[in-house]
Write a structure and sequence with these properties.
By secondary structure, the protein is of the alpha+beta class. It contains 6 helices and 7 strands; from the N terminus they run E-H-H-E-E-E-H-E-H-E-H-H-E.
Length: about 180
Amino acid sequence: MRNPNTSSTLSNIRACRNDERAAILAIINAAAEAYRGVIPADCWHDPYMPQDELEREIASGVTFWGHDADGMLAGVMGLQRMRDVDLIRHAYVLPGKQQRGIGGKLVAHLQRLSTQRILVGTWAAAQWAIRFYQRHGFALVSPQQKAVLLKSYWDIPERQVETSVVLANPALGQEEAA
């Protein structure tokens, strides 16, 4: 029997619409405040994601999925198919809606959609994000694999490569990223 106090169910997950780009951006920038003072100062910018960057990400194939809670978009997570892997991109939940299972439901939804290995990159200093993905079946890749993967599948500055980690589901064997 469903708990009547639980308002979030899988049916609340849906593809984000084009007219929700401002809401997507607001969620990303509000939740990314958690990185301020945690990631290297030279990697932080304000806003964390400007509108033109969101537009470039969508144009490059990132499809955003959202979770509705209490009639509003409360969390987003992007999926980008890249050759032989799927990438989780820009996974954020509004600060006031965190710790309610929204992120877990979004990642589970993307895992069901994917038919390939899923990779996710995050800041090495964002230990909470690393633990979140590990709880959902992802495993950290080696530092050597990380560099190869970030340079192969992401278009990010070298400084971000240096200060990030990659997690994979299923786990990546030592020989697979070489």
